[in-house]
């Protein structure tokens, strides 16, 4: 069923936060879906944007879907609109906070559902983050936005937590070249290991070192790949085979 997107009011946000707190304490109650249309808890937007309860295979598909569906709204009504993104979180709550086998949910901290738009947390919102990354990079973001909607993969955390990395198209191109298993749209096995050489975490650390000498964040992906030291050779070899 198609629904008009709305925004939670301050009263609606307070009730949603209270629900999140109860769930964190172990409550097994259904999401307060009545807030979505309650005129005291939510308000209409300036234009008609609609959503349906799609099932998103991964974060990339959620980002693409929301980017298309929110297009009728003026940018200033989307960016920084805590009520809108909280409304969407509640609407898709079974995906951003799915119940476990025994019925319990693990919502995590509030910023995963009610956005905090400071840079430290803005991409941690489980819907705004994928939307913002997709809007900026489109198909180049497929690796960063891999994995299920309610899970932040290491590659996502490493890249979105740094302004220079998430702003660089070349960095995303290089990441895709090294670590993307294109047939599945998922990271190659071992890419997110903390111990192995040449993995995503090492990629980020090496870029920070190279940035002292080179304008790495302004480079295209292929130029970044050519700068990487020998520990990345096994991953580069896979890239050559994939090409």
Write the layout of secondary structure elements.
Elements: E1 3-4, E2 6-8, H1 10-24, E3 42-44, E4 50-51, H2 59-69, H3 75-78, H4 82-91, H5 93-96, H6 119-122, H7 128-137, H8 154-160, H9 163-166, H10 169-179, E5 180-181, E6 186-187, H11 200-210, H12 221-227, H13 233-242
Antiparallel strand pairs: 1-4, 2-3, 5-6
Helix pairs in contact: 2-7, 10-12
Characterization of this structure:
44% of the residues lie in helices and 6% in strands. The chain has 243 residues and is mainly alpha-helical. The strands form three sheets. A two-stranded antiparallel ribbon has the order 1-4. Strands 2-3 form a two-stranded antiparallel sheet. Strand 5 (180-181) and strand 6 form a beta hairpin. The protein is elongated, with a radius of gyration of 19 Å. The chain starts with a strand and ends with a helix. The mean pLDDT is 94.
Taking all Cα atoms into account, the compactness measure Rg is: 19 Å
Largest beta-sheet details: 2 strands, antiparallel
Secondary-structure content class:
mainly alpha
Helix/strand order: EEHEEHHHHHHHHHEEHHH
Secondary structure: helix percent: 40-55%
Q: Shape, please?
A: elongated
What is the total tally of β strands? 6
| Low-confidence blocks of residues | none
Taken as a percent bin, the fraction of beta residues is 5-15%
* Sequence of strands across the biggest β-sheet: 1-4
């Amino acid at each position: 069923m198609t629904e008009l997107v709305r925004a939670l009011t301050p009263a609606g946000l307070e009730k949603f936060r209270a629900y999140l707190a109860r769930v964190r304490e172990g409550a097994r109650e259904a999401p307060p879906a009545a807030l979505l249309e309650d005129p005291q808890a939510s308000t209409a937007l300036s234009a008609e944007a609609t959503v349906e309860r799609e099932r998103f295979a991964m974060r990339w598909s959620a980002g693409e879907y929301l980017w298309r569906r929110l297009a009728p709204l003026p940018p200033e009504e989307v960016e920084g609109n805590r009520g809108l993104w909280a409304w969407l979180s509640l609407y898709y709550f079974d995906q951003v906070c799915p119940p476990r086998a025994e019925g319990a949910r693990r919502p995590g901290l509030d910023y995963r559902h009610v956005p905090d738009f400071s840079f430290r947390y803005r991409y941690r919102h489980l819907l705004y983050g994928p939307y913002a990354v997709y809007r900026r990079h489109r198909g180049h973001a497929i690796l960063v936005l891999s994995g299920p909607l309610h899970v932040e993969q290491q590659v996502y955390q490493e890249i979105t937590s740094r302004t220079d990395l998430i702003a660089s198209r070349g960095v995303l191109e290089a990441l895709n070249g090294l670590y993307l298993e294109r047939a599945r749209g998922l990271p190659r096995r071992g890419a997110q290991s903390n111990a192995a050489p040449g993995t995503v975490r090492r990629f980020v650390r090496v870029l920070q070192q190279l940035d002292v000498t080179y304008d790495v964040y302004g480079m295209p992906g292929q130029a970044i790949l050519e700068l990487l030291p020998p520990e990345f050779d096994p991953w580069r070899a896979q890239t050559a085979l994939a090409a």
